[in-house]
Design a protein that fits this description.
The chain is of the alpha/beta class. It folds into two domains: about 1-55, no CATH class; about 65-230, Rossmann fold (3-Layer(aba) Sandwich). It has seven helices and eleven strands. The strands form three sheets. Strands 5-4-3-6-7-11-10 form a seven-stranded mixed β-sheet, sandwiched between helices. Strands 1-2 form a two-stranded antiparallel ribbon. Helix 1 (about 15-35) packs across helix 2 (about 40-55). About 35% of the residues are buried. The structure holds S-adenosylmethionine. S-adenosylmethionine (SAM) binds next to helix 2 and strand 4.
């Protein structure tokens, strides 16, 4: 039996959850083996295209507005500018666009397929990126966020992001990101998700000129992720 998800994408209601998980696992294995040895960036882009093709890009969880709630708790005002790294199809981004003044939202993503599902308003800028060096977004933002994104980055990409994100930050910028923390670098589900030790993140971020604070989890933190706040390193931090 097909049931509407409330967003136009049908779901097989009768399909047992663990059976679906099994299928996902096998599909992940297939994609992983196809892309093994090639850059993680390309592998993830292929995964996203596959998700979009299968209608999985359009889930709209109730917690999407919590990203804006988090930003407001950290002081964002409508006149501020925001860079949303890995903005996806604007699941949470659209709430932020609605809140910010016209033109103050920029979102990036590696997947043109995911971005094609977005319907940005108020002159929001969406950019397809091909690495995490921030050359395409060469301007400074008051706020930077990476919501449910860092867990998708392999160590090489994570280093690239942490070493380069300073290019889009000024001395008062705040970078908020959630990520699963663990005692060593771990990956699961065919390298689809990674978890990192806080000390490792701090060490790399320090090389990139950033200080890192671990904050209490908030409502936008997906299962088992922790919230990090990063700023440009100053003598005081
Ligand atoms: C789980 S979705 C989160 C979307 C959005 N941030 C949200 O919370 O609503 C992760 C997004 O990150 C993107 N992504 C994956 N690797 C990335 C990378 N290295 N740099 C930027 N975006 C990436 C994916 O294409 C996907 O759209």
């Amino acid at each position: 039996m097909l049931r509407d998800r409330g967003n136009g994408f049908p779901r097989r209601h009768s399909m047992n959850k663990s059976f679906r998980r099994g299928i996902d696992y096998l599909r992940g294995a297939y994609l992983y083996l196809r892309w093994v040895g090639k850059p993680h960036f390309d592998y993830y882009k292929a995964l996203m295209s596959d998700d979009v093709r299968r209608g999985f890009g359009e889930l709209n969880p109730v917690w999407a507005p919590f990203q804006l709630e988090r930003l407001i708790a950290h002081g964002i005002k409508p006149q501020h500018t925001l860079l949303d790294i890995g903005c996806g199809y604007l699941r949470g981004g659209q709430y932020i666009i609605d809140y910010l003044e016209e033109g103050n939202y920029t979102g990036t993503d590696i997947s043109p397929d995911i971005l094609s599902l977005a319907r940005p308003t108020k002159n929001a800028t969406l950019i397809v990126i091909s690495d995490n060096k921030f050359n395409e977004t060469a301007r400074k933002f008051d706020y930077v966020q990476a919501n449910s994104v860092l867990t998708l980055l392999d160590p090489e990409q994570m280093e690239e992001l942490l070493l380069n994100v300073h290019k889009v930050m000024h001395k008062d910028s705040v970078f908020l990101a959630n990520v699963p923390l663990s005692n060593k670098i771990r990956s699961r589900l065919w390298k689809r998700y990674f978890a990192y030790p806080l000390e490792w993140i701090e060490k790399v971020a320090r090389r990139g000129g950033l200080s890192v604070e671990k904050l209490p989890r908030d409502r936008a933190c997906m299962e088992k992720t922790d919230l990090l706040r990063m700023r440009l390193y100053t003598e005081k931090t």
